[in-house]
Structures are given as structure tokens and as C-alpha cells.
């Protein structure tokens, strides 16, 4: 039977997950709780914390805030300033390969490379999301009316992908063949990178604010409905012409967060009432991981072995679910 170890976090939990030696919980109030061998609390931003993203190798956490600073926080509690844009509101960040960090404010995105070089990318409209490709330093930037794909380490014009509307969160498929954005109008849009074929995924009653790729990249799990919607990406045409899986359906509450298991075709599904279920793709078998709480589940992530799940809510509740005693 899964067990839940609650943790005391002050404020909206922006991001929760695992580094190499500890779990982390980043709060909008500015605090970061590291839970491993004991608990360590650090506060790096002068004002609020707006975004947090684990480094690709799991050695630390990148954070940004309304003080215009981007910090790298190690799992031992130490921190260092990576970049600073005074008087800028930095609420979009992404961690890439080889220590690259992307961040954005307004119409401008930047990439800070490990050797200290920085590249600036100007756009006609405000940036809505950032994502690095799985391999190489290609940066995808979502914006109004589409997305731009830049080479982060070299000069040159971007590859442009066009679709009318406001594009927000953005993600590459694990194999790098597809690019998917969450739109303002309760839908997803995707492109097959080889030929720029459009893929339209609609029908959501709410905006998609959370998505997670399954461990082999065969499915993309999403929030925004009264079930976790998993679009299939294992055919030649991606999700086009295929029906999505619907897991953890509940009649009275919407899914607010999803996190696919790192080793099995299983997804953790968090709801607006704080409930968390674990659902299996094959037969939609469900296991209750957490009972309802005080607010919507805002963030979840598994450890590398897939035996612990870190979670946080909009009401400041947080904890670690253990599948093993």
C-alpha cells in the first residue's frame, strides 16, 4: 500500500521532483525545500520564485523570479547566480544539454551556455514557452501564431512553424520527431518536424497546463479534462486518426497535473481536489496514492527508479508518495 510523507511548504508549490540525492519543492514564496538526509531550506530570490526546472543530469535546479535573476541550486543547498536581467520578470526557463539554460521575458529569449556565452533571440510577439531538443542545443520557442526553432550555439535564422493562435507551453517528443504546444484555446497543436505536418488535438474543457511523455515516448499524457488524456505517438502520423487513451476518469473534477512513470506504462494523475491516482495504460487499473486535500495538485514528478512520487499543490501542501515500504 502506498504511503504519503507530508512536508511543510509555504505557499503555492511551483515545482516538485527529485535531484540525485534529494527531493525538492520550490515554492512561489521563494523557498526551496530539499529533503534527503534531513531537510534543508534555501531562499535565493529576493522576491517571489516564478519557475523551477531540474538540470538534465539531476545535479541541481534552475530557478527564476520576479527579481530578474536565474540561479543554479545544487542538491547540497549551495547556489550560484547564472544570469541576471534587472527589472525583468523571468517566468519561463528551460534546462538543456551540456549545462545550457534558456530563459525569457517579453519578446526576448536568451540561452546561457556553460562556457558563459549568451545568445539572444528576438521575436515579434511575446514568448509563451521554451524547450530544448532531446539531443543538441536546439531551442524551441512558442509564441503567438506558432513556434520558432533556433540553433542555440550558432548564428542563423530560425525554422518557423505556423498555426494561428496563442501558443504557450511547448515540448519535444523524446525521439525529437515531434514538437507540441499547449494553446490558449483549450487545445494542443503539434508539428512533425520532418515535413512540418500539422497535428490538431482539441476537445478539452480547460487549458492544458501539464503534459508528460511516457517513458518510451509512445504517448503524451495531458491535463485539462476530467481524465488524463494520452495521445498516441507510435504511428507514422502521430495522434492523427487515432483515439487517445482516457485514464482516471472522474465525473466531477478536472485533472490538473500528470506525470508518466520513468520505467512502466503508468501515469500519476493529480486532480483539482488534491487527489492523486496511479493509472495503468493497458487496462486503466487505478491505485489511490493520495486522498483529496485543500487545493489542486500543481506539480508531480517521479524519482529515477519510479518508486517515489514528489507532489505539491496550489494550497502549499506537499509530500512524497512511496510505493515501497
What does this structure look like?
The structure is a single chain. With 325 residues, this protein is mainly beta. The protein has no helices and 30 strands. The model has no long low-confidence stretch (mean pLDDT 94).
- The oligomeric status of these chains comes to single chain
Using only CA atoms, what is the Rg? 19 Å
Global morphology: globular
What is the C-level CATH assignment of the domain at 203-325? Mainly Beta
Class inferred from helices and paired strands: mainly beta
Distance between the termini: 8 Å
* Number of discrete helical segments: 0
Strand order of the largest sheet: 14-15-16-17-18-19
Would you tell me the overall average pLDDT?
94
Q: Would you identify the CATH architecture of the domain at 203-325?
A: 7 Propeller
In percent, how much strand structure appears in the residues? over 45%
Instruction: Please report the total strand number as a whole number.
Output: 30
| CATH topology assignment of the domain at 203-325 | Methylamine Dehydrogenase, Chain H
Amino acid at each position: 500500500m502506498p504511503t504519503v510523507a507530508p512536508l511543510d511548504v509555504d505557499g503555492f508549490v511551483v515545482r516538485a521532483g527529485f535531484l540525485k540525492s534529494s527531493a525538492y519543492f520550490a515554492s512561489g514564496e521563494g523557498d526551496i525545500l530539499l529533503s534527503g538526509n534531513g531537510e534543508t531550506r534555501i531562499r535565493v530570490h529576493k522576491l517571489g520564485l516564478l519557475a523551477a526546472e531540474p538540470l538534465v543530469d539531476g545535479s541541481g535546479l534552475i530557478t527564476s523570479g520576479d527579481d530578474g535573476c536565474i540561479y543554479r541550486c545544487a542538491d547540497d543547498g549551495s547556489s550560484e547566480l547564472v544570469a541576471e536581467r534587472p527589472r525583468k520578470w523571468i517566468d519561463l526557463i528551460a534546462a538543456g544539454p551540456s549545462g545550457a539554460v534558456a530563459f525569457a521575458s517579453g519578446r526576448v529569449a536568451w540561452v546561457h551556455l556553460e562556457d558563459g556565452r549568451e545568445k539572444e533571440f528576438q521575436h515579434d510577439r511575446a514568448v509563451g514557452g521554451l524547450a530544448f531538443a532531446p539531443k543538441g542545443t536546439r531551442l524551441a520557442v512558442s509564441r503567438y501564431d506558432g513556434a520558432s526553432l533556433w540553433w542555440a550555439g550558432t548564428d542563423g535564422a530560425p525554422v518557423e512553424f505556423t498555426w494561428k493562435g496563442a501558443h504557450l507551453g511547448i515540448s519535444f517528443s523524446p525521439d525529437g520527431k515531434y514538437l507540441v504546444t499547449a494553446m490558449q484555446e483549450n487545445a494542443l497543436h503539434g508539428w512533425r518536424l520532418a515535413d512540418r505536418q500539422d497535428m490538431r488535438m482539441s476537445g478539452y474543457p480547460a487549458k492544458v497546463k501539464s503534459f508528460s511523455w511516457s517513458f518510451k515516448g509512445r504517448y503524451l499524457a495531458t491535463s485539462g479534462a476530467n481524465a488524463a488524456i494520452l495521445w498516441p505517438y507510435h504511428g507514422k502520423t502521430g495522434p492523427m486518426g487515432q483515439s487517445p487513451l482516457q485514464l482516471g476518469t472522474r465525473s466531477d473534477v478536472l485533472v490538473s497535473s500528470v506525470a508518466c512513470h520513468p520505467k512502466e506504462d503508468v501515469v500519476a494523475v493529480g486532480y483539482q481536489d488534491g487527489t492523486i491516482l496511479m493509472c495503468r495504460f493497458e487496462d486503466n487499473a487505478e491505485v489511490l496514492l493520495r486522498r483529496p486535500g485543500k487545493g489542486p495538485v500543481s506539480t508531480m514528478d517521479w524519482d529515477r527508479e519510479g518508486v517515489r512520487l514528489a507532489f505539491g499543490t496550489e494550497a502549499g501542501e506537499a509530500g512524497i508518495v512511496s510505493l515501497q515500504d
